[in-house]
Specification:
Distance between the termini: 89 Å
Helix content: 40-55%
Number of helices: 5
Strand order of the largest sheet: 1-2
Largest sheet: 2 strands, antiparallel
Number of strands: 4
Length: 139
């Protein structure tokens, strides 16, 4: 019984003749001719001890950096946040309702009215002058 072999190239299947033992070599040469010799080079042939040492050093550096970042976290109202994301001058907690927020809308209201968006809607909207004079809701 004669078997027909097929080689998948991209999305196409190409029939491989059984008789030609050098078919793979011809395909490789055609690919090298069309796309350049670098496309058919075995990656292991370009790897040496110096590259291996650089790779391992990079892995160690990444591991050390990640483990240090894990230990460099600050607890802000029950949530651990990397220290580099917390700015001492930034106000992320609403002084009225005491909630912590990452919303960009809250930044606008915190700057202008010293409260989050929800507190603005509930307490400030329509009473801006009263709010600016110092009125705050009873706790």
């Amino acid at each position: 019984m004669r078997r027909t072999l097929f080689l998948t190239i991209g999305k196409r299947e190409v029939r491989v003749p059984n008789k030609d033992p050098n078919y793979a070599v011809k395909i490789e040469q055609a690919i090298a001719k069309k796309y350049g010799k670098d496309t058919v080079v075995n990656p292991k042939s370009l790897w040496d001890n110096e590259k291996e040492q650089q790779y391992v050093a990079g892995l160690k550096e990444t591991y050390v950096r990640e483990t240090l970042e894990d230990h460099d976290k600050v607890e802000v109202e029950g949530v651990f946040i990397p220290r580099k994301l917390v700015k001492e001058e930034s106000k992320r907690s609403c002084p009225v309702c005491k909630t912590y927020s990452f919303k960009s809308n809250d930044d606008v209201y915190m700057t202008k009215f010293e409260c989050c968006e929800e507190c603005y809607i509930q307490w400030v909207e329509g009473r801006e002058e009263r709010w600016k004079t110092g009125w705050r809701p009873n706790k």
